[in-house]
């Protein structure tokens, strides 16, 4: 019997709940933490599906997952694309998809990479800092073009602060990005390219209080904002090909601006996301993993590839993700699961509830 596995590190609450929920929902595929004894080239694993929560930090695991994918395992997220992806490309792709993003400039590393010399950069001209500052303005953020977890992120209010921060970045390639003065902020799960949960989020709070927030935009404007974010979430994840991701939006003048959407192992710890959000992501991930396991074809490529890659292979160019254009914005609710075909069954709130408030829909249904 093929299995459904979760590959994880120190994380406990999500992997344990995920395994339990998958096993409660069905008996065709045993769910368990991935067990690795020996990795041999071209030899298949016992897993139909593996949910990857740690390979970004462990190169050995990344190589293991690529070998597993080559021999037929559906790895979530696609380890080949995850290895190639980074935040600057994400922003560039978002521009092509018509999703608003902050103005962003890519900066070369302050210090040269190992084993390079001055002559290695004969194609690189001196940065026109005056033009860059005029384009991006102040305040601004500087952060690594690849990575996450709020590591090496700087907010700068003037050129002096920017250069001081830049001096600390070493060999990191950095993004220099306009700061968005937002009135609303959201972090949004997207699971399986279809299930969406939009969560009010306050990034300026302490980590354990960031989900203790409420949506401020209400009425018709709030419904329009919800519909727009839902559309953008699907466009971005279909374009990138992620099965398990989060998208963050900062709302300025009613427009949701995508801030961060390269999170292939997003936070899903019950102590930070709150019980209601935790129950939802466990249930959605379990459903997605079971569906994927049932569709796996032995020895075939069972990975998800985004529209960017598929369009390149087919020679059709970038194609937009197909969101359900009939979804009614008035029937979507913050903090509720949104399926494209089921949008008409959602409630019609005037004001979004707190994201950590538990309701009946948030409780996973146990197998009887």
What does this structure look like?
The protein is α/β, with parallel strands linked by helices and 368 residues long. It has three domains: 82 residues, 3-Layer(aba) Sandwich (Rossmann fold), CATH 3.40.50.20; 76 residues, Dna Ligase, domain 1, CATH 3.30.1490; 148 residues, no CATH class. The chain is 31% helix and 17% strand. The protein contains ten helices and twelve strands. The protein has a four-stranded parallel sheet, with helices on both faces. Strands 5-8-6-7 form a four-stranded antiparallel sheet, with helices on both faces. Helix 1 packs across helix 9 and helix 4 packs across helix 7.
Beta-strand residue fraction: 15-25%
SS-derived structural category: alpha/beta
- The N- and C-terminal alpha carbons lie at a distance of 23 Å
Give the C-alpha Rg. 21 Å
The tally of beta strands, per DSSP, is 12
Spatial strand sequence of the major β-sheet = 2-1-3-4
Return residue spans where pLDDT drops below 50 for at least 5 consecutive residues: 320-368
**What is the H/E string?**
EHEEHEHHEHEEHEEEHEEHHH
**Helical region count?**
10
Tell me, what's the shape? globular
Number of domains: 3
What characterizes the major β-sheet?
A: 4 strands, parallel
Helix content: 25-40%
Q: Would you tell me the overall average pLDDT?
A: 89
